[in-house]
Amino acid sequence: QSALTQPASVSASPGQSITISCTGTSSDIGAYNYVSWYQQHPGKAPKLMIYEVSNRPSGVSNRFSGSKSGNTASLTISGLLTEDEADYYCASCTTSSTLVFGGGTKLTVL
Amino acid sequence: EVQLLESGGGLVQPGGSLRLSCAASGFSFSDFAMSWVRQAPGKGPEWVSGISGSGGDIYYVDSVKGRFTISRDNSKNTMKLQMNNLRAEDTAVYYCAKEIVSGGWPLDYWGQGTLVTVSS
After folding, report:
1. Nearest to B24 by CA among B10, B15, B36
2. Torsion-angle region of residue A73: left (phi > 0), alpha (psi -120 to 50) or beta?
3. CB-based contact (8 Å) between B95 and chain A?
4. Strand-pair category, B114-118 with B10-12
5. Which residues of A touch B103 (CB under 8 A)?
6. pLDDT digits (tens, 9 = 90+) for B5-42
7. Where are the beta strands (DSSP E) in A24-85?
8. CA dihedral B29, A47, A53, B38 (to 10 degrees)
9. Cβ of B44: how many Cβ atoms within 10 Å?
10. How far is A45 from chain B (nearest CA, A)?
11. Segment A44-75, tens digit of pLDDT
C-alpha cells in the first residue's frame, strides 16, 4: 500500500487561509468517506483534526475544514494562527481495511 | 479522562522479539477498535495493525504480516503487540490509539509512545 501524496511544505502569513491536498487512489480515498487529518507538533503524538472527510472532533476549531473529490482530499485552515504551525498528515482507510497515511506537509506560519 | 499508556519498548537485536503493551482507561474499552501506529525518526506515521472492539477482526500492514501479532484483553483493558523477527526498519516510536467512531480507523486518542530500537 503506497503512501498518500501530499505537498512537502506550505507557508502563509497569520490570518490567511491555506489548503493542503492529499491524493490517493480508488482503493483508498476514492473508495470510502474515511479520510482523516492529523496535526503533529514536534515531539508530540498526532492529534486528530478531521475524520470522515469533514467531521471535527469535539474541541477542534472550526477554522479547520475538510473535503473530498474523487481520489483527492483537502484540508483547509482559515484565519491562520502561529500555533497552527505543525506537520499535517492525511490518512485513509483502504479497501483492505487497513489505514494508509500521507507523507506529511510542513505548515509554516510566517 | 481517556488515557493510553504504552510500555515494553527497548533495544533489541535484529531477529529478536519484543512485546508491547497498551493500558487503557477512561472509556469503555471493548466498545472501540484500537490500533498500533509507528513513527520512525524524522518520518511520518505508519499504521501497523488494528483490532476491533471484540477482537474478532484483525488487520496488519503488509510489511509486518507474519511477524507481528496484535491482541486485546477486554477484561483487563489492555492491548498488546507481539513483534517477532524484528528488522532495523522496525525502529520507531510505537503508539497505541483508539478510534473515535466505528469504521475507517479515525484515531482520536494516542498514547505517549514507546521507542523500539532494532540494532546490533
Report:
1. B36
2. beta
3. yes
4. parallel
5. 34, 93
6. 999 999 999 999 999 999 999 999 999 999 999 999 99
7. 35-40, 47-50, 64-69, 72-77
8. -70
9. 20
10. 6
11. 999 999 999 999 999 999 999 999 999 999 99
